[in-house]
Known about the structure:
Blueprint: E1 8-13, E2 16-21, E3 26-27, E4 35-36, H1 37-46, E5 56-57, E6 67-68, E7 72-75, E8 85-90, E9 105-109, E10 121-124, E11 128-130, E12 134-136, E13 146-147, E14 158-160, H2 168-176, E15 188-193, H3 211-221, E16 225-228, H4 236-243, E17 251-255, H5 266-272, E18 276-280, E19 282-283, E20 291-295, E21 298-303, H6 307-326, E22 334-339, E23 351-358, E24 361-364, H7 373-378, E25 381-385, E26 393-399
Parallel strand pairs: 4-19, 8-9, 15-16, 15-17, 17-21, 22-24
Antiparallel strand pairs: 1-2, 2-3, 5-14, 6-13, 7-9, 7-10, 11-12, 18-20, 20-21, 22-26, 23-24, 23-25, 25-26
Helix pairs in contact: 1-6, 3-6, 4-5
Amino acid sequence: MFHTIGHTSSVRQAGGSRQMDRCGRYHGGMSPALLPLEEALERLARAFPPPATGAILADRDDPALDRSSMDGAAMRSADGTSARTVLGTLFAGDAPSRFQVTPGTCVRIMTGACLPAGADCVVPLENLKEEAGLAPLTAPAAGDWVRHRGDQAPAGALLLPAGMPHNAARAGLRAQVGLAPLPLRRVLVGIAPTGDEIQDPPAPHQIRDSNGPMLAALAHALGADTRLLPPLPDDPASLEAFLGDLGDLDILITSGGVSAGDKDHLPKVLATLGARVLFHKIRLKPGKPMLAALLGRQVILGLPGNPASSYLNALLFLPVAMAGLLGTAAPDPWKSGQLEAAVANPGDRPLLHPCLLREDRLRPLDYRGSADLIRLAQADVCAWIPAGGMAAGAVRYLNLL
């Protein structure tokens, strides 16, 4: 589901040398305190049970009878190129027993219609000429343009095993074999920014809530129903009361309150409420304080407060949580392109760097860090820059929604 790119760089730390790949995963030596992005995504994906979809079996031969794959005429191949008398026309859904093809006769037939008895081939319209009936331009062969009974699947065949993720094609397959459709629903995502500094209008020492509308728009773009909630104060009791009654929300996204400051209360409050914390703090910038937890049936995604951190963590983790709740496959968000210029990245965490995209070429912007909503809003994509930086060349990236 999530792909590791094999580039490595050597990193020297106390306790020996370790190798770090471009997903931020270290190999050898002491275990790092921060969770690599790939492992965090996998932990979140594994937190959901497999889809409760039963096996799908063919209820009858598919197709159930020989069918035409073209508009044309159903004929006997043994009659060669001689003209045939037209007995009538069969459309998709017509009973083929209306006609019996005998030597010197044919039936006009439409795509998907069942072949009448006596016919063993279909001649497409473009290969027919009107000549005292219909005559093929070239001699047909038995089986031409015919979808034979059971050639896609015989009755009783296993078409899909139990527990497969649901998607639109599989919904169609269920209907084709007579199974009831699975209920369609959208995930309901609540977005609650945190912080006493959020005010409207803001004093010079305060800020407006940009994360709430930004994350609501992102969740909507990903196909969720959204509910933008009022900002939460930096108060443990208020936060505990709020988290204790999330109502009909499937996912709660918070922004802020997950780092190591005196007012970052979310981790402790979740522990008090008995939440199952899947991870807290990942090897990524921006976005190191990222937290994911299960609180009863509800998913909590605790995002860092800086806007670039909030947005990029939501872009990575929200689709995984939504897929888990819906029983669908999580998408692979990564694409490949060419970085036009080198990007510095000091430290030991990989960086998602905003870039413009022109065809498959990425032009890095003058990104100022996790609080830089301006450059994030100007960007088309974010390039994955490994720890230590990256020269111009092949790179993977995320589209910004």
